[in-house]
Amino acid sequence: MVEEAGARRWCMLRMSGQRTLAVCRALTTLGYDAWTPQIIVRRRRPRSKKTIEIDAAILPTFVFLRADLLHDLYRLMAQPGPGLPAFSIFTYAGRVPLVGDAAMRALRDEEARAAAAHEAVRQREKLLADRTAEQRQRAALRAGARTYQTGERVTIAQPAFAGMTGIVERGMGKAAIVNLGGSISVTIEAWLLEPAGVNREHALVGAAA
Known about the structure:
The chain folds into two domains: 9-112, no CATH class; 153-208, SH3 type barrels (Roll). It has helices at 20-29, 70-78, 101-143, 200-208; strands at 9-14, 34-35, 38-44, 51-57, 62-66, 88-89, 99-100, 153-156, 165-171, 175-181, 184-189, 193-195. The two termini are 61 Å apart. The strands form three sheets. Strands 1, 2, 5, 6 and 7 form a five-stranded antiparallel β-sheet that branches. The chain has a five-stranded antiparallel β-sheet with strand order 11-10-9-8-12, with no helix packed on it. 34% of the residues lie in helices and 28% in strands. The protein contains four helices and twelve strands; from the N terminus they run E-H-E-E-E-E-H-E-E-H-E-E-E-E-E-H. The protein is of the alpha+beta class and 209 residues long.
């Protein structure tokens, strides 16, 4: 693969798998251009059904460092400061192999795909959680729905007629026949009705609580 003009080159650092992210973060904090592909993974809390999200290395034991920083890195390794986990510079046949930006692109693409997949899962779970909360709210409203008597003026919260008002022609316990004017009458579940003038938003908040 042909490298683009001005493309950077990278050397590889090696460390134990559990130190991969710690080394990368420490070098970045010290001002070095260091990088390793990461992914967010889920782990179950000990003795719990709840999960937590943690950062993990896609390529454990490898951190990439911009090659023109090697001389500075040798000086750092000669006098390591506190908070810098142990690592070594990867060599092969007595030389430090370098990786170009083009070769790194596949790793960056994989990191981006992993991030996108994780976000898709998050959005799906949020959608399911929102639906579950909505179902619970509706169940609470149904359970607490009042009955309506003939002649009561009501406001309808059902999407097809939301905000319209009408007169109850006949109450049927969990539902009521509501006249919207003239010959237009519809059967509406009682939990989707409210006495005219009541703030529906406050009613929903109370039911959710």
